[in-house]
Amino acid sequence: MASTACFVIVSKNDIPIYEAEVGSAPKREDQAYQHQFILHAALDVVQDLAWATNTMFLKSVDRFDDLVVSVYVTAGHTRFMLLHDSRSEDGIKSFFQEVHELYIKIFLNPLYLPGSRITSSHFDTKVRALARKYL
Amino acid sequence: MPPLTGPKSGDALFGSVERVNAELFTLTYGAIVRQLLTDLEEVEEVNKQLDQMGYNIGTRLVDEFLAKSNVSRCVDFKETADVIAKLGFKMFLGVTATVTNWDAEGTSCSFVLEDNPLVDFVELPDTCQGLQYCNVLSGVIRGALEMVSMKTEVTWVRDMLRGDDAYEMRVKLTKQVPEEYPYKDDD
User: Fold this and answer.
1) Helix (H) or strand (E) segment spanning residue B72
2) Are A104 and A65 in contact (CB under 8 A)?
3) CATH number of the domain to which A9 belongs
4) What ipTM does this complex have?
5) Does domain B43-120+129-176 have CATH number 3.40.50.10540?
6) B106 to chain A, minimum CA–CA distance in Å?
7) What is the average pLDDT score of chain A?
8) Strand residue runs (E) in chain A
9) Number of domains present in the structure of chain A
């Protein structure tokens, strides 16, 4: 498992709707803010890249020191952004694909408003389990 | 006209009615609940409205059920409950319920649904904890039974959306209205 990993889902209106620090390293508050900052900065790159390719998985779009930002863009332009220091691209791809399936389930819930925060604890547990498995 | 034979089996009934895609059905129902929540704002009001909608559906549905299922008159409430669980649920929802927890007088029982096509994908958010998502079903049963001269009260006892292991509906027969010919002979 990666020592540092931060996973954020950004809605198409550029609002973060889900955040999770999934690395094994002990959590530090200032780092969490730094991760948010890096991911936020990467959004611009994603915006350009998303329309230049027809794949959903954009691989690594940005880097900061030894941290890499990998992004997956769904058809509805929701962005899954992962900040990580591991190198296994296959694992990250599988992670994104499985999170995408979970995300679709959340989306199909009639009581969930698209673009609102994902508060489901079930989703949170599953995402963390996937992170342990693939990252 | 088909020959009048005994009641059809649940599977035969299910096969004989028109069907729609399950996801379309689930999401349409979800959209209705969602819209009611937006319009009425109060969860309690939504429960009431769903029940009323179910009642209106039930009063019509019972006719279609009786027309297509060939069931004959039920001798008691126990038989009625069995018919609903084995044939009614199967015909319209594609699942069967089990009837349990009879009280001593045989006037109230529970329908237990292991599987409920209405609730695929649904997860109750914190803001609608009081919502009886499937209240339309209880309304349908109440309406259908009222049309065949049985007044009932239907309440939900267990709900998988609140973490229970199954769906359980309690049906209580409150009054059996005797059927009367509406006119006197000499009128």
Assistant:
1) none
2) no
3) 3.30.450.70
4) 0.71
5) no
6) 38
7) 86
8) 5-10, 16-21, 57-64, 67-73, 79-84
9) 1
